[in-house]
Design a protein that fits this description.
By secondary structure, this protein is of the alpha/beta class. It has 6 helices and 6 strands; from the N terminus they run βαβαβαβαβαβα.
């Protein structure tokens, strides 16, 4: 059997969010976009991990605040078990701690729930193709964080 031509097969998506209206609405919206297919949804972190590991989607769109294990821990479990699965965190929280925790857990995308459809679709396709996406305000804060330099000792071996 021949390998599918890149860009020919639809991107497989799992949507994980504990709010049914948001989860189902996002799944319906993404499913209506040519080139995307939603292969599963999950209402909590445990289900998100189970569905992701079973379906092996290209991307999981993951909420942070969910019952049971949160989206950060679910992201860590998915990316450590299946590194080929990209995770885009979609959340209300823009505090630095949450952003950096998500990135440390393996998320390659981080968007606020106020993002429009185009931005979400672009993030999914970018992450599916190996890239990373952070909303403009978050990208600026991440750049500022790294531009500030290390906060540890100046010398490698302080005396």
């Amino acid at each position: 059997m021949a390998e599918p031509v890149p860009g020919n097969e639809p991107l497989r998506i799992v949507v994980a969010d504990d709010h049914p209206v948001y989860r189902d609405g996002l799944a319906m919206l993404l499913g209506s976009v040519p080139g995307l297919v939603v292969v599963g949804t999950a209402a909590d972190g445990e289900a998100a991990v189970a569905v992701a590991l079973e379906e092996q989607p290209d991307v999981v769109v993951m909420d942070v605040q969910m019952p049971g294990i949160d989206g950060i821990e679910a992201t860590r479990r998915v990316t450590s078990t299946s590194p080929s699965i990209g995770v885009v965190v979609l959340t209300m929280s823009e505090d630095d701690g949450t952003v950096f925790a998500a990135v440390r857990a393996g998320a390659r995308g981080y968007l606020l729930k106020g993002a429009d459809q185009e931005e979400v679709v672009r993030a999914i396709t970018t992450v599916a193709n190996g890239g990373a996406v952070f909303g403009a305000a978050l990208a600026r804060r991440i750049a500022e964080f790294f531009a500030a330099g290390p906060t540890g000792p100046e010398a490698a071996f302080p005396s």
